[in-house]
Design brief:
446 residues, alpha/beta, eight-stranded mixed beta sheet, 13% strand
Length: 446
């Protein structure tokens, strides 16, 4: 934190005709009104790096509004997710990032950034009335969101912008034709998938992620039904070969192999979405952010026919695996304070409501999900928002918060893909766990 300039120092500068007074460009070196002022950093330009998606679209759409409100100009670079992740890591490591603000996935890069010490801590700013507007309503941000944005030693170095709960998308028309009720349990879902599966008509009872790496999050959603995560303890240790982990892998294998489409081992979310939008799949479990395309009447054959339901409960638990995205400022950023103001705007209640309205995802806030003004202008069915609100109380991490999370997804994902080829669940989960264990142990020890 930059030290404030004392009143005595400022008066000394005035006494010397202003020649000795430094340029007032720090947080506390402004008019001592004690109140937050959106225009405090007027005239600065903030370079922002955003991943392709609805958050970037909203920032671009409303950047003029932000300029009018703050006097801060935005330079916005938007690139695909994987490319952005690589660029962020490389430039943060260089110590000379080309951006002042960026968005990132907590479950992918949080621990990496924390261990490297690349992000600016904002803990004190969140408590400073000159840096925190009352209308931000920090208390409205969910505990899970703030836990994602907080380091292991209790420091805040990001603000949460978006969470993705996992929910069930289902084709109401197909369910009605067979007279089947929406499944509330995993056992009921397996029965429903069997009844709705009709290969002769080109309809699958279920579709989901089967491709290596991406498939892990569908499996962890099923694993939540056994009341378990993938790691436990401190230091973390793998429990992906426990009896419950193996049981959930067996369920995954049967559901996708028996009632999924041909070639499901090559399906990521986009292939699953495409099949569902064609009306060729009765159920699909994935993140909340896909409502907008499935309700697009110009592209989707199931628009207006989609139901949104909570993930079914399992024999030992009921969860909705959750993934979070946040915004952060590099320690080496050129315009830290102006970037912080930009971050407040992007994660605040107004932009959160707009993100919800267009179906771009669920904000880490409760107020927009209950705001009649927001809900009345949704461009997607209200049932989607109601389902998301129901997912919040049962939300849980969908991936372990570890540095080698990509390797984890690759190793465990290979085992899951092998299951779709006929491999034995117990053998594969034990093999994958043994393979990844030294990687995790080394990471935790460093």
């Amino acid at each position: 934190m930059v030290r404030s300039i004392t009143r005595r120092r400022a008066l000394q500068g005035v006494a010397l005709g202003g020649l000795a007074a430094p340029m007032l460009n720090t947080v506390t070196a402004y008019a001592q009104s004690g109140a937050f002022n959106w225009q405090r950093f007027k005239g600065q330009t903030v370079e922002v790096l955003m991943e392709t998606g609805p958050r970037a679209d909203l920032m671009k759409k409303y950047q003029k509004e932000f300029l009018d409100q703050t006097g801060i100009k935005l330079g916005i670079e938007v690139i695909p997710e994987q490319q952005a992740r690589q660029k962020v890591a490389i430039e943060l490591n260089s110590g000379k990032p080309s951006f002042d603000l960026f968005n990132f996935a907590f479950h992918v890069q949080k621990r990496q950034f924390e261990k490297a010490g690349w992000l600016l801590e904002i803990t004190d700013w969140l408590k400073d009335p000159q840096m925190m507007p009352a209308e931000y309503e920090l208390g409205d941000v969910s505990k899970l969101g703030m836990s994602f944005a907080t380091t292991s030693d209790g420091k805040v170095n990001a603000l949460p912008i978006l969470c993705d709960y996992f929910m069930v998308y289902y084709n109401k028309e197909l369910f009605a034709k067979k007279g089947i009720a929406f499944p509330k349990t995993l056992d009921e879902m397996m029965v429903a998938a069997a009844a709705l599966n009709d290969p002769s008509a080109g309809v699958s009872g279920f579709v989901g992620r089967g491709v290596r790496n991406a498939n892990v999050v569908l499996w962890t959603q099923l694993l939540s039904g056994w009341g378990q995560e993938t790691v436990t303890g401190k230091p973390l240790r793998l429990i992906t070969d426990s009896p419950d982990a193996i049981a959930s892998a067996e369920y995954y294998k049967k559901l996708l192999s028996s009632y999924g489409p041909a070639g499901i081992a090559g399906f990521n979310w986009n292939e699953a979405q495409g099949l569902f939008m064609q009306g060729k799949a009765a159920m699909w479990i994935d993140a909340t952010g896909f409502a907008a395309p499935v309700e697009d009447k110009t592209k989707s054959r199931v628009a207006g026919k989609v139901g949104y339901g909570l993930p079914p409960s399992g024999p030992k638990g009921h969860g909705s695996v959750t993934f979070g995205t946040g915004m952060a400022i590099p320690k080496a950023a050129a315009h830290k304070e102006a970037a912080y103001y930009t971050m407040l705007w992007m994660t605040g209640r107004t932009m959160a409501g707009r993100m919800l309205q267009v179906g771009g995802g669920i904000p880490f806030r409760t107020a927009p999900l209950k705001d009649p003004a927001v809900l009345s202008t949704l461009t997607i069915p209200r049932e989607w928002a109601e389902c998301a609100a129901g997912c919040a109380p049962i939300s849980m991490p969908g991936l372990p918060v570890i540095v080698p999370v990509t390797e984890f997804r690759d190793v465990i994902g290979t085992a899951l893909t092998n299951l779709l080829g006929g491999a034995d669940p117990a053998t594969e989960m034990k093999r994958a766990t043994a393979e990844f264990k030294p990687v995790l142990d080394k990471s935790e020890a460093s």
